[in-house]
């Protein structure tokens, strides 16, 4: 249903932490001009954890309005409260999002049966297309392939963002689910190989900084051009790594600010990138051809 380079968009903020909607407009136009294939609004990289419910919905609504149907908008609406996830997903659908991205419930560590019932409840309550999001490194919760297979039989669960970085995990999900469910990479460092193995795209942090290059990489991988995809990926590899020298989205917001696109704002408990890492990220940006 969705393909290519899907940017996990940062939420621009002023130094006082307030959301900067003028900068959001600039970001949307930048990504459309650079060939980004879809925008993921208010995911992990968009600081969903520290936005209020009202801000969360407003950023999604503004993003949809700014995009004006030119590319898909996928709204991050996950929560560790099933009722809250349903509410956010309904609000995103009413705001005009094309799909929703739902992270596994964090902190409360549900069982696989609990995960199945959580995602089924959201899907049954809100008829928008939904993409599962598995990132156990941040959530202390792993959505296993057999549970994904069960969920793939629910008609409006259309994909999964697999952020374990495991190609074998991605292959297993594809083998189990077939055409019922699309797999997307959630790990830039392994995205090219996962797409060459059959995934349909990459929900990308790196695309915030190098959108044209990530679009070209995804295009090559989806076309089965392994040589071109790996060549582009090799150039981007230092950037994939540098954008995680501190917790995401700390480095990527600094990098997008370095490009002159957003002010230097981030919300506590996250802090601005430590000066010791500035040159590391700058050098990776130079190698990627964006500075």
TrEMBL record:
Site (L-lysine inhibitor binding): 49, 80, 84, 106
Pathway in which this enzyme or protein is active: Amino-acid biosynthesis; L-lysine biosynthesis via DAP pathway; (S)-tetrahydrodipicolinate from L-aspartate: step 3/4
PROSITE patterns: DHDPS_1, DHDPS_2
Location relative to the cell: Cytoplasm
Active site location: 133 (proton donor/acceptor), 161 (schiff-base intermediate with substrate)
UniProt-listed GO biological process terms: diaminopimelate biosynthetic process; lysine biosynthetic process via diaminopimelate
Gene Ontology terms, MF aspect: 4-hydroxy-tetrahydrodipicolinate synthase activity
Site (Part of a proton relay during catalysis): 44, 107
InterPro entries named in the record: Aldolase_TIM (IPR013785), DapA (IPR005263), DapA-like (IPR002220), Schiff_base-form_aldolases_AS (IPR020625), Schiff_base-form_aldolases_CS (IPR020624)
Gene Ontology terms: cellular component: cytosol
Keywords of this entry: Amino-acid biosynthesis, Cytoplasm, Diaminopimelate biosynthesis, Lyase, Lysine biosynthesis, Schiff base
A Pfam match: DHDPS
Residues annotated as binding pyruvate: 45, 203
Residues spanning the membrane: none
Enzyme Commission number, as recorded: 4.3.3.7
Record field: catalytic activity: L-aspartate 4-semialdehyde + pyruvate = (2S,4S)-4-hydroxy-2,3,4,5-tetrahydrodipicolinate + H2O + H(+)
Top-tier EC class: lyase
SMART domains, A to Z: DHDPS
Function comment: Catalyzes the condensation of (S)-aspartate-beta-semialdehyde [(S)-ASA] and pyruvate to 4-hydroxy-tetrahydrodipicolinate (HTPA).
Homology family: Belongs to the DapA family.
Known partners and oligomeric status: Homotetramer; dimer of dimers.
Name of the protein in its database record: 4-hydroxy-tetrahydrodipicolinate synthase
Species: Inmirania thermothiophila
Organism placement in taxonomy: Bacteria, Pseudomonadati, Pseudomonadota, Gammaproteobacteria, Chromatiales
